[in-house]
Amino acid sequence: MDLIAGYPFWLMKNGLPFQYPKLLEDVSSSVVIIGGGISGALTAYYLTEAGMDCILVDGRTIGLGSTCASTSLLQYELDEPLHQLIKRVGEYSAIRAYQLCGESIDTLTSIMDRIRFKEYDLTNSLFYTSHRSQLSFMEKELKARQLAGFKVSLLSKEEINRNYGMSAEYAILSEKGATINAYALTHALLQYSIKNGLQVFDRTKVTDIKYNEHDVELVTEDGFLVRSKKLVNASGFEIINFISKKIVDLYCTYAVVSENEQEKDALWKDRIMIWNTDDPYLYMRLTSDNRILMGGRDERFSIKTSRELYQKKAILLGKDFEKLFPDKKLKAEFAWSGTFGKTKDSFPFIGQYQKTPNTYYALGFGGNGITFSVIAAQIISDLILGKKNKDAGIFSFNR
User: Are 237 and 300 in contact (CB under 8 A)?
Assistant: First the structure.
């Protein structure tokens, strides 16, 4: 499956920072992880930190799936606003999911500090609407987030314009969020974990899996066998290659990044992340060299929407930006499309699936997939190590 098209900024910026071997022999391990994106890298980090013997395989070059196309906003917000999610899944599960995403930002910050990864910024988040009729919606969402313990405030049109130079009617300002480089972080996590014994093989496509009573056997495209007691599937949106159950709808999201403006001051106050209430929504952030990184205008996934529309969408995203910031221009340098998934309840799928014994899934579907990846790594490492995790049921296949 082609998960990206165009020129993802992070891939252009970082290139291929490390080389990983291809698997060319039969191997065995306590745990095998399929997927070398951010989800697989975080799971490998947790398991190797716990002393587990792990192998990670990916069919592509490491990081060249959805991870390199990510705009890398770390948010506690799910795709569905909290006050609406409460009605869908109940107050406890909705609030706990939001809280876990908030906690995962702090957790990932600690991990990045531990492995000495510096390419991140802690920042506030601004959730805005351009529609005057949505005051009631914003007030309900504000109360729900306050109930969940988040520090939030409602801004008026005048406050938004005065503080950020934006043209919007209302906005919720949240005091929790971060921006990172997920592609570079994936490599940094893997390099750290390799020192703890992790084996990483890329260009190693798994073509068949045999689920046994006490172990799992994987066969690669080149005919080599990988045996493990446990398997973690972190293949993300390509899960359709491994299970037949329809659990996610795939979409294309489009992104554009402006020219380097490091010689200028940041375009808006506090370098906040910005996103809106529309469906599909727009989202944007600044990079360390003051580029505007903006995405949105999603479409249902197809090869055509991925390959052919990203340049047209880049033009439309530029117009969206200039409507929001009437006195500014977005001069695009790179544009691309990426794939993401939506579930019916906006939750990821984490844990075991009854038809595939000895296998755990780290499927961080959603617009904030990186925070879900942290949660998945924590839950799965607990389950493999025989520990109870009180939050596992919220994201299970049986929810």
Answer: no
DSSP element (H, E) containing 160: helix 157-164
| In contact, 337 and 64? CB cutoff 8 Å | no
| Contact present, 20 and 202 (Cβ < 8 Å) | yes
pLDDT tens digit string along 185-228? 999 999 999 999 999 999 999 999 999 999 999 999 999 999 99
Q: Nearest to residue 172, comparing CAs of 158, 154, 159, 157?
A: 154
Contact 126, 171 (CB under 8 A): yes
Give residue-wise pLDDT tens across range 230-262. 999 998 767 766 776 678 888 888 999 999 988
SS3 6: strand
Half-sphere exposure of 134 (CA within 13 A, CB side): 21
**For the purposes of burial, counting CB atoms within 10 Å of the CB of 329, is it exposed (0-12), middle (13-18) or buried (19 or more)?**
exposed
